Amino acid sequence: MTNIHGSGMPTSNPNLLDNPWSQINQRGKTEYIGKVYGVDRWFAQNNMEKVVVQDSYVTLVPGTDYSSFAQHIERFSELANKTVTLSAIVRGVAGQCVGLYINPWDYGDGVYLTGANWQLISVTMNLANLARCEIAIYADRSGNKNRLDVRAVKLELGPASTLAYDAPPNYQQELAKCQRYFYSTLNNDGERGALSREAFNVSTANISYGSGAEFPVEMRTVPTITLYSGVSRTAGKVAYGTDGADCVGLAEAQFVGKTGFRQIRILDDPHMPGNQASFHYTADAEIY
Fold first, then answer.
1. What string of H, E and C letters represents the secondary structure of 55-107?
2. Domain 31-177 maps to which CATH number in 2.30.30.100, 2.60.120.260, 2.60.40.420, 3.90.1150.10?
3. pLDDT tens digits along 158-193
């Protein structure tokens, strides 16, 4: 922990995690089931568990085994041979074991909760060389199958936690950080889709094209693009015409890069040329 000009007033170390207070939820669901990404940058590690999105925290609900909440660290080589502290603000039941780990089970330990109120727990670890870095919170490893509420998580350099001095981070800054890994227009307003492009035909019958889109930030790598109908939101489709009908064939993005995709292609639909193609899309560059 550092002080301001020797005044004795505690200040906070930088948090090395993205979306540490679970503010960003581009996928827009209120709960996520199974081994999937949910609130941005966070994923579950158990096929049967559920992560429920609450007003200012998430709840981990175990299935047949423990529940977990994990995040991959992209620039993990910078943590090699360093002392780090992983901490979290959690709420469970007295006696519940909560594990704080890096590369489970290489580094970390379990902490027993002392009551049913919000508590700050932490574990300090001395890391060696890393081939990967994945931080995780594990609940109920002892098999008690209790829920766990998680308000905030912090990974920082040094031998002590400064999470107690943190406020929730700036929403817009966290959103931009998360959009390097995943971007979605599915929650944008407009029943005709977030984007509308005129479809045109180029020599080949029943194959149409439309212009693409730019991402709000440069993504960490070339993403996987999925198009969705602007009306029905069916994957692999676009909508067209005054009635908003879905195209018959497959709609896909082409010439995809880290900053956007140049065009869309719609296969096997003679109705597309001259119509507006409306669509949403997701761009996925998560670490798997």
1. CCCEEEECCCCCEEEEEECCCHHHHCCCEEEEEEEEECCCCCEEEEEECCCCE
2. 2.60.120.260
3. 999 999 999 999 999 999 999 999 999 998 755 566
